[in-house]
Amino acid sequence: MQMLYTLTFLTEQAMVDPGGIANWAQDLMRRTIGPLEQAFMEIRCPDGGDGGRREDFYYATHEQIHPTGMLSVVANLTPWSDHNQSPCNMYQCQVL
């Protein structure tokens, strides 16, 4: 038995985290993207890396605004986060 689900975002802020804010590649328009939509997109980080994408699929449709855009505001406020060996600032983005 197959079931169909319809997912509706009621407002712009519904189910959106800071990592969901991306640049649209064609017209550079900022749009908010929900986490359910992110799983099916190719989002490039502006640091220039390939983000672990396969070689046969290199085209990214979206781009993050900032390399730490996937983290929440609280995780970005962690002092010296680049030098912290503990991954706790990665977990902070989902705690709030």
Automatic annotation (TrEMBL):
Q: Which GO terms describe its biological process?
A: DNA-templated transcription
InterPro entries for this protein: DNA-dir_RNA_pol_su2, DNA-dir_RNAP_su2_hyb_sf
Q: What is its EC number?
A: 2.7.7.6
Single GO molecular function: DNA-directed RNA polymerase activity
Question: What do the Gene Ontology cellular component annotations say?
Answer: DNA-directed RNA polymerase complex
Please state what class of enzyme this protein is: transferase
Q: Which domain of life is it from?
A: Eukaryota
Q: Which Gene3D superfamilies match?
A: DNA-directed RNA polymerase, subunit 2, domain 6
Q: Which UniProt keywords apply?
A: DNA-directed RNA polymerase, Nucleotidyltransferase, Transcription, Transferase
**Family assignment from sequence similarity:** Belongs to the RNA polymerase beta chain family.
Name the UniProt record assigns to this protein = DNA-directed RNA polymerase
Organism listed in the record: Dioscorea zingiberensis
